[in-house]
Each structure stands twice: as C-alpha cells, then as structure tokens.
Amino acid sequence: MTQPLKVLFAGTADFSATFLTPIIASQHQVIGVVTQPDKVSGRGKKVQMTKVKEIAVEHNIPVYQFESSLRHPENYQQLLKLDFDILVVVAFGDILPLELIDFPKYKSINVHPSLLPYGRGASPVQTTIANGDEKTAFCIIKMDETLDTGDILYWQDVEVAAKETSESLFAKLSALGGPILIKVLDDIPTYLANAQPQAPLNVAEPKKTYTRKIKKTAGKFNPELTALTLERKLRAYTPWPGLYFAYPEKDEQDIKVIECNAYANWQSVVATYEQKGQLNRLQVRANASLRQANLGAELGMIIAQSSKHLYVLCADDSILEISAVQLPGKKPMDIKSLRNGYPQLLVPGVILN
To answer: Which of 31, 77, 249, 318 has the fewest C-beta atoms lying within 10 Å of its C-beta?
Structure first.
C-alpha cells in the first residue's frame, strides 16, 4: 500500500459524485475538485451546483470552475500550481490538456464504464442500454492525450440485466466501482506498472465507436424504429430526455412515455391476452384490416387500447405497448388514469410523432 495520496478530482455528472465520496472517506486526501460551472435551471431560474461541488463544499474542499475549456492555458495553469500526486477524472465533461494529465507524480487516471476500446466518449452507459448490449465493463485507465484511449489499469465485466435502465446501471457501476477505485489508489505504482494497452479496434471507421453527448432529440419518438428499439431508448434515456412524442395538436408540447413494452407483432399481443384469458379487454378499432397484420394502419398510429394499455404500430409491424405517460406539467399517470381524466386525448386512430 502506498502512502496516502494528494488527489485532485475532476468530475461533473452525478455519477462522478459517487466516486468522490469514497475517496474522501479513504486514507487519501482530496486537495481540490474541478467541476463544470454552475447552471441556472428550473422555473425559478435557481443556480444549481453540480453534485460534485455540493460534496466538496460540504467537506470544505477547494473547488475550481472555469467558464471556458480547461484546455485553455490560463485555466489549467492555475491547477499546475497545486500540490497533488494524482488526478482522478470521472465524467468531467471536457478533454484535458496533456500538460495537466502528465503533471502529477502518478499522472492521471480515468473511470470509464464500457467495453473499451468500444464505447469511448460521453455516453457509454446510455449507449449500452440503447444498443441492447448484454454486457459492459467497469474500467480504470491511465489517461493520455486522446479520448479514452489509455492503457487499462483495471477491468471488470458487468452484466446488463434484461430490463436495465441507465439509472440502475449507473447505480450498479457506482456500487461496484467505488471500492475498486480506492483499491487502485492504494497501490497505484503496481497498477501503473502492470497497465495493459487496449485491444486494437476491429472496425473500418474508428469514430463510430465513440458515444456522443446526449441531446434532447435522442429521446424523440420515431415510429420508423422498431418497438424494441423504442423501448430500449426509454430505458436508456430515463430520466432525461426520456422517450417523448408531440402532444396531439400542440406540437410545442411533449408527452413523455413513462412505461412501455415491445411486441414483435400484433399476433404476439393477442396471444398474450389469450393466455391471460383477457382477450375481451382488448378494444381494436372497428376496422377488420387492423386485426389482420395491421394493414392500412400508419406507423405511429394507436391501433388498439385496453383498460391499461395503448398499442402503437411501429416499424416491421412491431407493437409498442404504452402503460404510463406524463403530460406537460403533470405527474406520471397510468393509462387508466389518463382515460379517466382525458378520455379523448390518446385514442385509437391518433398518430404519435
């Protein structure tokens, strides 16, 4: 075990905060925290600190925030004046300059949750869920001048559950990764000495292996995708931006899908109701073609409803079963509550987009 390290921590996302806390509780000393600027959010336009900053302030740890990129010399040179042994980076939100990365005695390490070299970049967890991957990894890497390409100090496979959400996967990775990070810091010379290069990329276009920063448009409902793809998008992008479609006749407002399930086709939906002995609860539009392979229905159309669900036609004749939604300014509600309060809002024949 090494002597206690003086740690400079850089992180912004809530995920980052779950790694700052165990370092503070360890033998090591956090001499400073670097995080992105506070944001103004909410209807009250209140200034919102990052969770990382909140924890630092609570523990009287100096906080460093810069309005422009940390790559600007006038910013990172302020950090070079500090006395620290290692820089720990977790979801900071900016590319660091090599001069800062190489400055401390034990250089800089980064926590990254993906099957490196795949899933580099800003949104590896969300992309894992959206892609339907069954496995990811918790990695700690030695940082270099390019994004998420450094040698691997620690790797552990992580199974992705069938109905995993980004929230649950982040929580799983945090619970697993906190103790691992301390283990690596406790014996950092050994881990650095045994670091292994990442496997070579076996793809023609390496840039396609990078995940991008999530934008609101990522959660836009698109019936030209299969129901399974849309169901994965919901799990990937909850709590933000979620999966949403335009409020009928009010395009400037959105309705969020809160719960949904995917079926390969309409026959699968009918079979499910038959197995439960509840086929009479399924109300299909008075159009025989909709009961036969959905001919004549448009993509995005609500083709059926039950007391608890809406059924939407998606690509390849797949069906998205929606069981809960959230209207603008309202709390999430199940379909029964929607039907009681807004009986004509989302009914068979309405097209979602």
So the answer is: 249
The three-state secondary structure class of 273 is helix
Both 227 and 136 in one domain: the answer is no
Domain edge (last residue) among 177, 208, 239: 208
**Which two tokens mark 6?**
């003086």
Q: What is the CATH classification number for the domain harbouring 344?
A: 3.10.25.10
Q: Give the span between the Cα atoms of 24 and 3, in whole angstroms.
A: 15
- Residues 7-43 have pLDDT tens digits of 999 999 999 999 999 999 999 999 999 999 998 876 6
Judged by phi (left if over 0) then psi (alpha if -120 to 50, else beta), residue 294 lies in left
114 annotated as a binding-site residue: yes
Residues 140 and 63 in one domain: yes
- My answer on whether 64 and 186 are in the same domain is yes
Residue 37 marked as a ligand binder = no
Residue 83 — pLDDT band, cuts 50, 70, 90?
A: very high
**Phi-psi bin for 233: left (phi > 0), alpha (psi -120 to 50), beta?**
alpha
Tell me, yes or no, whether 24 and 93 share the same domain.
yes
Count of CB atoms situated within 10 Å of the CB of 64 = 18
What mean pLDDT is reported for the chain?
92
| Nearest of 338, 241, 271, 346 to residue 301 by alpha carbon | 346
Residue that finishes a domain, picked among 147, 179, 208: 208
Has residue 290 got a pLDDT over 70? no
Domain span holding position 61:
6-208
Whole-angstrom distance, CA of residue 226 vs CA of residue 264: 8
**Which candidate, 27, 54, 25, 61, places its Cα nearest to that of 38?**
54
Nearest-10 Cα torsion for 264, 266, 267, 270: 120
Could you tell me the pTM of the whole model?
0.91
Task: Report the candidate in 35, 143, 147 with the shortest Cα–Cα distance to residue 87.
Answer: 143
The total domain count for the chain is 2
Beta bridge partners of 261: 321
Note whether 203 and 224 are same-domain residues.
no
Q: At what angle are helices 14-25 and 51-58 packed, to 10 degrees?
A: 20
